[in-house]
Specification:
CATH topology: Deoxyribonuclease I, Chain A
Number of domains: 1
Radius of gyration: 17 Å
Oligomer: single chain
CATH architecture: 4-Layer Sandwich
Strand order of the largest sheet: 3-4-2-1-14-13
CATH class: Alpha Beta
Structural class: alpha+beta
Number of strands: 14
Strand content: 25-35%
Helix content: 10-25%
Largest sheet: 6 strands, mixed
Length: 258
Amino acid sequence: MSDSIEIISWNVNGIRAVGNKEALKWIDERQTDILCLQEIKASEEQIPDDLFDKKYLETTINSATKKGYSGTITWSTLQSDYKSSCQHVDTTAEGRIVETHYADIVLFNVYFPNGQKNEERLEHKMKFYDDFLVHCEKLREDGKSIIICGDVNTAHAEIDLSNPRANSKASGFLPLEREWINKLLKHGYVDTFRYVNGDEKEKYSWWSYRSGARDRNIGWRIDYFFISEDLCENLEDAFILDEIFGSDHCPVGIRITI
């Protein structure tokens, strides 16, 4: 394959709520080839069938065992060769990963755990991070190229959130969480937004619902596209669609030749 495609990722914080707001209708105005959503909070039969008119060739759903919680879905105009929910990484069956293979490229749509609840959940988050990277590295050893998108639930650097000092001891910006992103980059993965846009400031993908944070752009960049470095020459663009509403997150995306 050698086609230029657009891939968009969005944590919708409830796909039924987004459907009620008609907040995915913009898909019909874009040429989005692959759409990856996280935190759908729905089983397959609960997903609205009128989110958008665009017809995708393939829909892959990974719902959490717990009702109304987590979950991921990937729509694609491309036919995948293989799909997985990575149960050896998502060991608690929270529907956090859709893995799809397109020839030698593996796309991961991931809703990484949040570590804010307590120390146990933080430990779970860090183990998920480590197990996921091991899985990606095994695929690379097999000659695969990797695209990772989704809600990573960590801001990497001080430039990636409005108030780094005030949040230095909060999960989502803890040193050990940020160090995992450093580790990912050292293993040869690339933060596509920074690769394309450099040190552009005040570009975020999540805002608290409290205190008019989004209106004041008091946010965090916790939604990412990472690619294995061999795909950098294929990367055409990386962007944040912060003009799109409907969730406490906004969509992020890339255009890439595969």
